[in-house]
Design goal:
homodimer; 250 residues; alpha/beta; Rossmann fold; nine-stranded mixed beta sheet; 9 strands; hydrolase (chains A, B); Alpha/beta hydrolase (chains A, B); hydrolase activity (chains A, B)
Chain lengths: 250, 250
């Protein structure tokens, strides 16, 4: 993991990094005083590691709770090259939307494919983060994501024992995701917009029902995907603070 | 409204009152320093104004947020006489439960009948509370309830313009409640237990969908009716603080 830039603003240190083909960013308190946990943030499909909503949440978490937050570009997103298949999918989604046709199946196929590549990338990123001086093997780790970042997060959390709590936003649900949710036992919160016309309520409820976690919460709110209200960001920070307190804290 | 007792413990003043046939209790900061809002708390069926969960929430709201909280016994509950019809209903519920039969229809009939009597009682209580020196016409008012307290709260909020935000817990849902929800436009939060075997998920979702509020949130959580986790109590307090800040606050 190579840090390629470092800037500091309003008490938040922002460091861009590269790890093999992965481009990422790490936010932490500029004071150097960090609290658990380390959060992995998975951006939405078509967005990138510095998507406005993701950055707003990261800044809130770092500023108000002292968390450390890491985000990486998904394959074919942000600073990473798009291959021909990525390009085809992006065009198919745009065309379906322009024609007023449902995009869910195209998005599901695309997200599944990208997430399959992203899971080992997150695991490699996690290895590298845990090798940093400020993060150790005892630092509890959480995952938070939206759309594509939910698909990746569900597949990652189902197989990666280092993820100890997860917060998921809206996603198009298929059987593969429900299957992944059945393998997840850590505390989960799942936040969905109730009134978005593309949103599949029944799929969301099936996904929530599938989580095998002893502690799980579904938050449905009026309105669409964006903006996420500030109180929901804060509720999410509280969820992580509650479930990922350092065991050896003084 | 006649205060019949006054005690103070851990910074919370508790005053019991009588208003005609209504028996009630009012909690407020012993310091006398109150913040908005005034919350009306509706207890669950078979419980009373000092049900343990209701008291725990009231103490949390008063201690941490400076709210004032009022609760009254529903007709036939707590310190109020049970008439023959109340008695019949209570026995019918006990018998159905003992026989392992569904109780929902009996509870729905009973709650509807009790709530119809409770709505004007809450309105009279509100008139009397607003006549107290520490509560004025500008004090924003919220309503929070569980089961029977939800039925009453839905019917009250649908017709009473003084209720400016409402928090509802689990309830057996019928068409009358869905109809009441359609007339509710103030901010609403609705908290349901996901794993209680008596709980009707489809009914809960129909009720949530029916609220005409621009701001509404559904919180579903793993586990049964009780206990309500401390973080949900706090989330509820934040909901009221956010939506019921005093307009003329300095």
């Amino acid at each position: 993991m190579q840090f390629i830039s470092e800037t500091s603003s309003d008490g938040v240190l922002e460091r861009h990094f590269i790890l093999d083909e992965i481009t990422g960013v790490l936010w932490s308190p500029a004071s150097g005083i960090v609290s658990a946990p380390l959060l992995l943030a998975g951006h939405a499909g078509g967005m990138h590691k510095k998507a406005p909503g993701l950055v707003a949440s990261a800044i809130h978490f770092v500023t108000n709770y002292g968390f450390t937050v890491a985000a990486i570009d998904a394959p074919g997103h942000g600073d990473r090259p798009r291959n021909a298949r990525d390009q085809q999918w992006a065009e198919a989604i745009h065309q379906a939307r322009a024609a007023g046709e449902p995009i869910s199946q195209i998005v599901i196929d695309y997200s599944g494919s990208r997430a399959q590549r992203a899971v080992p990338e997150w695991q490699a990123t996690l290895d590298a983060l845990q090798a940093l001086p400020e993060i150790d093997a005892e630092t509890p780790i959480g995952y938070a994501g939206m759309t594509l970042g939910v698909v990746t997060g569900l597949m990652l959390t189902a197989v990666e024992p280092r993820i100890a709590a997860a917060s998921f936003g809206p996603v198009f649900v298929d059987d593969a995701l429900v299957e992944a949710a059945r393998r997840i036992t850590v505390p989960v919160e799942y936040r969905i917009p109730w009134d978005d016309e593309e949103f599949d309520r029944a799929g969301a409820i099936a996904l929530f029902a599938a989580f095998a976690s002893n502690e799980k919460s579904l938050h449905a709110r009026s309105g669409g995907y964006q903006p996420v209200p500030e109180y929901e960001r804060d509720s999410s920070a509280r969820f992580f603070a509650r479930n990922l307190a350092r065991r050896n804290a003084a």
